[in-house]
Amino acid sequence: MGISNKIEENLKRASWIRAMFEEGERLRKIYGPEKVYDFTLGNPNVEPPAVFKEELKRLADNPIPGMHRYMSNAGYPEVRKAVADVLAEESGLPVNENHVVMTVGAGGALNVVLKTLLDPGDEVIILSPYFVEYKFYVDNHGGVCKEVPTLENFQINTEAIAQAVTAKTKAIIINSPNNPTGVIYPEESLSALDKVLSAKEEELGTDIYVISDEPYAKICYDGIKVPNVFKYIRKSIIVTSHSKDLALPGERIGYLAVSPKVPKVDLVMEGMTFANRILGFVNAPALMQRLVTKLQRERVDIADYEEKRNILYENLTALGFEMVKPQGAFYLFPKSPIPDDIAFIKAAQKHNILLVPGSGFGKPGYFRISYCIDKQIILNSLPAFKQLAAEFSLG
Amino acid sequence: MGISNKIEENLKRASWIRAMFEEGERLRKIYGPEKVYDFTLGNPNVEPPAVFKEELKRLADNPIPGMHRYMSNAGYPEVRKAVADVLAEESGLPVNENHVVMTVGAGGALNVVLKTLLDPGDEVIILSPYFVEYKFYVDNHGGVCKEVPTLENFQINTEAIAQAVTAKTKAIIINSPNNPTGVIYPEESLSALDKVLSAKEEELGTDIYVISDEPYAKICYDGIKVPNVFKYIRKSIIVTSHSKDLALPGERIGYLAVSPKVPKVDLVMEGMTFANRILGFVNAPALMQRLVTKLQRERVDIADYEEKRNILYENLTALGFEMVKPQGAFYLFPKSPIPDDIAFIKAAQKHNILLVPGSGFGKPGYFRISYCIDKQIILNSLPAFKQLAAEFSLG
């Protein structure tokens, strides 16, 4: 009767997140939005780069006949070539437009990749703390998630991954710069992961794909550059979007790219294009495909993000909160002063500070701060954090 | 090893469609595009209405801060209200923005609806001839398709539907104006369907939803108006897109709307919004949502389509081809002069006429003509159709 049992169960479980959101709305009505310190959302408050707006104006003023029609399910060849050119340059590999499918954001890309790869019961390794949507995406396509914890500093634990691999392991999802921790995996980690997986493939006679979810790849600080995964991992697939680097999350524009080193890559790409069609995406939005074609080397101004990271990292550390200094994305993932992270975020709410508990990322005992919000709100929040730290006898 | 078995099998089966597409490309290279009569694609060759272009220009010239950010997974309240207002007016029911979710086209909407409704093994009735994507969409979410043939005139066979309903039947998909036949279901048929399904629900103690896929609802001729399904069917869900009525297929903008008469409609809408998120759509493209808000009562010029329908219907009927005169969409679905429709479309190819066999829609012995192409190509094709008819001794 009624809707799917699984969906109904998930709605019940999701209700505490909604309760928290509603509490935020309630607080904003009482205290005003500038006095509620909402660190819960990953919705960038910046605008797209000026060149995006110029391109949009240029196209609106000079519409091209047929520019809103269907194109190949993989997307326009020009935009796929523009994506491939940058990937070829970064990886040193012969990436071309046939290795790229334009998608409805990274969320769309992940679903297309998982639909293409998974047989029922296939296992996908995810690293905790993880982006909670991964579990839904894997389940959508009949897969089973295997959670493997990262190290204390949130870096990849290759040994633990090796132990988790079975004959049913089809893929592992990595996310660097990471949501929720902000850490970036260095080249050596990627190479070590490739080595471990190759040995396991040899042992088990299987294929194990590394799905690298990289929407924050251009949001990195301290002069660090995120390594190109194609260079270090043979069976790698990049999924990403322009939600963060061009600040277009509502427009649902992203892509997937498969390393030319992947065996039978033509068949894999045919599968991806077909999956993009039958999942109902059909193609990435046409106008946005055109708009991002020339913007593959652009990004939003990240100096603002870096300043916010610094303010929060320095102040919270000084108050006694413990955390790994993030090198990218726009998140901090400090330790909760008490093991019960849900109790802690409820306490923070009393100071008008809204946080997401680590439990929401498969990592109880931590909490996530998302700092893609106005600097002034962050500055306003510091006295409240001080009171919160005092309440938990930190410092 | 490698990609999913199911995807690989589907790619093999899809190869004859690709072979036909490649044959078309080959013919175009030899004879020139104006001498190849390609009736295979449902990609409208018209441009969006002028008011769409003006809206796009206005927004590009006056960007609203935050207009590319995430919004609620259901979409902007304003556009949902604009959709709901028209539906309320057409149905006479209290439809409001909470009954609408903006989606990535009708393909996205159908996947969201099926994900929300289906438990594994649930049955979905589809009416042959049917849009082939329905089978993939139902399978994506663990459902099982039950095919029920329509009547000789392609209208709903309510008795056959009643016989096909089991305790596992969760939904039936109807499509009016229909792809591939162009027929429109009149009010009486919808009422009769509701009656039959209500009786079955009563008998079996189940819920059976009618999913009405209506992307062609505004493409109808002879002064006919497509009846609003909410008015005649209690548990009805509309899925549609602006791909055809505003000629925006590449932009992936559509919606789903649930009748306010559906029991527990709030829970159903919560499920739909959640499914839109976890399937990776997240939300319908932001800019397109804004653009279609004021265009809910607009449509492309259909006089052109009607003229093309008339030219083809009259000429092909005169040549001896048998077909139901379509009242909407931009398709004709004539009987193949020989039972083997694949052999017939291969024969047509020799006259540079490209058609889709009825087998592709679960209805062998017929073929589909899609006439959303240049009028001149249609006129050029008539002598070739004459030769083809002579070859099969028609007329």
TrEMBL record, chains A, B:
Coiled-coil segments: 288-315
Database matches in Pfam families: Aminotran_1_2 (PF00155)
Entry keyword Cytoplasm: no
UniProt-listed InterPro entries: Aminotransferase_I/II_large, PyrdxlP-dep_Trfase, PyrdxlP-dep_Trfase_major, PyrdxlP-dep_Trfase_small
Keyword field: Aminotransferase, Coiled coil, Transferase
One MF annotation (Gene Ontology) recorded for this entry: pyridoxal phosphate binding
All copies of domain Aminotransferase class I/classII large, residue ranges: 36-374
Domain of life of the source: Bacteria
UniProt-listed Gene3D superfamilies: Aspartate Aminotransferase, domain 1, Type I PLP-dependent aspartate aminotransferase-like (Major domain)
Keyword Magnesium: no
UniProt protein name: Aminotransferase class I and II
Organism: Thermincola potens (strain JR)
